[in-house]
Structure formats: C-alpha cells, structure tokens
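step 3/5: co-fold with guanosine-5'-triphosphate
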Amino acid sequence: MTSDALADRVLAGDVRAIARAISLIEDETPAAADLIRGIFPETGRAYLIGVTGPPGAGKSTLVDRLVAETRAQGETLGVIAVDPTSPFTGGAILGDRLRMQAHAADDGVFIRSMATRGQLGGLARSTTDAALVLDAAGKSLVVIETVGVGQDEVDIVRSADVSIVILVPGTGDEVQALKAGIMEIADIFVVNKADREGADRTVTAVESNLALQSYAAGAWRPPIIKTEAPTGRGVPALWTAIKAFRSHSEAGRHERRRARGEFRLRERLTHTFLDHVERHVLAPGELEQVLEKIASRAVDPYSAAADILRRALEQGHE
Ligand SMILES: Nc1nc2c(ncn2[C@@H]2O[C@H](COP(=O)(O)OP(=O)(O)OP(=O)(O)O)[C@@H](O)[C@H]2O)c(=O)[nH]1
Ligand SMILES: [Mg+2]
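step 4/5: write tokens
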C-alpha cells in the first residue's frame, strides 16, 4: 500500500491502518515520514493526556478505568503504553493486554504497547508520532503511559496537554519523584492504591511540597486525587480534574503545542543532519576513528564537531 493510501485509511479511522502506521513508526522506516506528512494537517484535535509514575504504581489499571469512564461520556480514545524494559516488570506487558482486552471489541478505543528503543530521543519521537496517528484517526483523547524514570519519558509526559503524575503510598515515591524532577511537571497528582496504609501521609507529603511553591492569583495549583484503580474509586474525580485543567489551560494550550512542535523540529533536524553526516560527509569508518581520537585526547569534541560541520557546509557549496 502506498503511504498516501495508508494515510487516507488512518484518517478514516481504520483500525488495521492505525496498527500498521504505528508499526512503521516503531520501525523508523522512511515510509513513516511520508505517512506523517500525509496526516499532519489533519492533526491537533485530540487532547493529549500524559500519565507517568513508578513501575507498578497502577498506571495501566487506572488508564483502563479512565477509558471506561470517558467512553461512557462519548469520548473516543487512543492509548499508548510504553513498555518498561526492565525484566522485572516484563510481566506487565501481558498484564496490560489482558486488562485492556475488556475494550478489545470497542471500535472507539485503540490500545497499543510500544517497546522502548535504545536510541537517544527515539522513544519520545516514536510515541509522539504514534499519538499523531491516533489524533489523525479521530480519537478525541490520546493517553500516553510511561514509567517516569528516564529524561525521555519525562519529556513525553511534559509535552502532553495535561501531565498526570501517579504516586503510591509507603514506598518513598514522593522523594524519588522529587529527585527525578517529575513533581514539577505534574498538572494533576494521583495517589493511587488509596486502599493501602499511608495514603493520607503521601497526600500530605505532596501537599507540603506544593505549599513551598508560590502560585500567582488564578494560577493552576495541581490537585491531589486519591484513587483505587481496580475498583475505579476516585476515577470520576480524576476525569473532573482533567476537564477542569483543560478549560483552565485553554489559553496556554497554544504555547504547549508550540513547545511540542519545537521539540519535533529540533529532534528531526538533529536526526536528519547526523544521518547526512554519517552517510555523505564522513568516510566509512571515519566516525569510529574520530571517537578513538577523542578517547585518546588527540582531539577534543568541540574541534571535532566544528570540523565536521565545516566539511558538511563546504560540501553543500560544491
Ligand atoms: N491494592 C491496590 N492494588 C492496585 C491498585 N491499582 C493497581 N493495583 C495493582 O498493582 C499492580 C500493578 O498495576 P499496573 O496497573 O500494572 O501498574 P503499572 O503502573 O501500569 O505497572 P508498569 O506498567 O509495569 O509500570 C496490579 O497487580 C494491580 O492490580 C490499587 O489502587 N490498590
Ligand atoms: Mg503499565
């Protein structure tokens, strides 16, 4: 199938086309670029919800409940769960599938797990592009679930329209989250596993952290919602908070999308330029030689980069 035909089918909301499009993106094939070109003008309508939190916090269970809650209110959803690479949580992949199967027969919901890639920035690129596909396919909400451990994952959630940080009682997660810098990106806090001992202590810990910040009059102060994902308790309150944030941040939405666009452009430029350098500027094996020289201190990274840039520019003028 040509990229144009695939783009048309994605725009028509065809489930198999959506799955195929996301696979192209995951595999980073050149056809993926053509596809994005074809669908991009039709994107920008979906509301992007980023969900992050430590492994096993109950993110998938909660997203599953949120899907049920919002579906009942007529929303359509795309869900992208970024699989943790840690072998200890590997079982979650199967778990996600089983849990989400409840929505398998529902055309209004598309759920996909994506594998993390080693390449720097690769994860952020593939998830934001997959979100574009779901947006183009007409989903009104797109949820991206990541384990908030790497910078890449934090960036993904930060660039969503609303960022939700999930914590659980009694594991010192608040402290961890503070260290990882994910407290600052939260528009909404969720303390999940509220059925467990210590939930109120966790709420208080987040509260006291928020109390340290000063909020201008009328500024959004992140609410803290207690949930119990398996029973769905607190999920309607979470949805209400999301809608409240959405109307509150309407004015700032453009800025956030602009930031997302900037991230995309910079990432693309870097990727395209490096690719060009490796293919057309450097001789085969030359990159390794340069790396060796840097390692042995024969050349510094600044000079090496400047030299490569100069050669690339000169080549452009030939
Ligand atoms: N007691 C209790 N257990 C919960 C709650 N929410 C989720 N769980 C359980 O916690 C475990 C992990 O839930 P998941 O939804 O897979 O967590 P996750 O954050 O998506 O996990 P990863 O994607 O592996 O990081 C499951 O056994 C859930 O049943 C809750 O509110 N209370
Ligand atoms: Mg999960």
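step 5/5: annotate
The chain has a mean pLDDT of 85.
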